[in-house]
Amino acid sequence: MYSEVFILATALSAALALAALRLGYPAALASIASMLLFLAPGSAVLVTLPYVGEVAVAMDGHKLPFVAASVLLGLIVTFYAPRYLKHLGAPNWYYGVHALYVLSFVYIVLFENLFFVFLALELSIVTSFLLIWYFGYGNRRFVGLLYFVWAQIGSILFLIGVALTGRFTASGFETARLAFDLATFLVLLGLLVKMGTAGVHFWLPYAHAEAPTPLSALLSPIHVGLMSYWIWRLKTGAGWPLEALFLYGLATAVYGSLLVFRETDFKRALADSTVANMGLLLAAASIPRDFSYTATALLFVGHAFAKAALFMLAGIYIVSLHTREIGAARWDRHLLAVGILGFVALAGLFGINLLGKAYVAAGVPATLSAAALAVFALLSTAVYSFYLLNQLYRAGEAQVEYPPDMYAAALAAAATPYVLLAALPLWLR
């Protein structure tokens, strides 16, 4: 029974995460490793509650890429974190909160009851807020509050919209065939706020840039990206205007790409680029055709590992050279290799990101204006990647001393979009 698997995995991962508040790194690593138990296929109804209905959980082929990427990247970032947290002077309880944050990703996808998806979103907000508030950079208290308020706005709009529709289960939402009205608009707006798309993105560059780098490596590609799963999942029943949403996603990709060119801070540039990539993910999730899921999953996974690798590279520079300025960074051939792998994958020139972009291109509405916007969006998200890579290369070569464990984690994440390309025939058959 999947209920037994779910309860066992929850008990192990949560108990070890709480132990990590005191024991630190080993317990956090064990906590996140135990989350691999959630990947067992199956479904179960845990309980039935008044008003909100069945509290069901499920793991199927559609959820697998989102949950597996979240847990595997959580493990990689945890392996990366000790030397960085020593640099920050962070106490052991950081690891416990970090493990609970990764657990929230699993729950966001696994729960079939949208009220419990909201509760999982709340867990992700509280844990990430604590890490920004205590360990962020710059005016971290202001940034933490800005992030907390906007994240709560998104979650509450989502919850109010779900409550107004009266459809608390994902299956009920999917089959409802609702008209596009205030209720469904609030559900959509809440998810878009949490993604940080154009117009509701103001919080994102601050939070992702000023968060401690191990958090940035999860917040930027995983936390906000998971909203694309629910947009894809709920779109049919919600009656959203998919063509308009697709074009809005493309416009967000262009806008986010342009933001990158104003930055000299490595982490801030990567944060701006997340706006662009969320635009592509939104476009993929909005395609009104069968391959929408494939496009969304490919772009989510590819962006997650490539962006995390680049944030980890920025963290190496912070620890080793004490700088976030792209022009002040230096590289040797090993660091440059991570940069090239990460930026080429992010640009969509190779790796699974290339196929994700190809699917987005295949979903463009048959109008000249839509085609022109799509070309601009797909090219601009490649151009900013090579702009940043060129800026890094022009900073100059030098011998850089960096912790081997941090480098190994960054390299593993950067190589993953290419390694996964070999496994795609098994997945897409």
From TrEMBL:
Membrane disposition: Multi-pass membrane protein
A GO term, aspect molecular function: NADH dehydrogenase (ubiquinone) activity
GO process annotations (BP): ATP synthesis coupled electron transport
InterPro entries to which the protein is assigned, alphabetical: CPA3_Na-H_Antiporter_D, NADH_UbQ_OxRdtase, ND/Mrp_TM
Listed Pfam families: Proton_antipo_M
Signal peptide: none
Localization in the cell: Cell membrane
GO CC entries: plasma membrane
Record keywords, A-Z: Cell membrane, Membrane, Transmembrane, Transmembrane helix
Keyword check for Transmembrane: yes
Record domain NADH:quinone oxidoreductase/Mrp antiporter transmembrane: where: 113-329
Transmembrane segments: 29-52, 64-81, 93-110, 115-136, 142-166, 178-203, 215-232, 244-262, 297-319, 334-356, 368-387, 407-428
Name of the protein described by the UniProt record: NADH/Ubiquinone/plastoquinone (Complex I)
Organism: Pyrobaculum neutrophilum (strain DSM 2338 / JCM 9278 / NBRC 100436 / V24Sta)
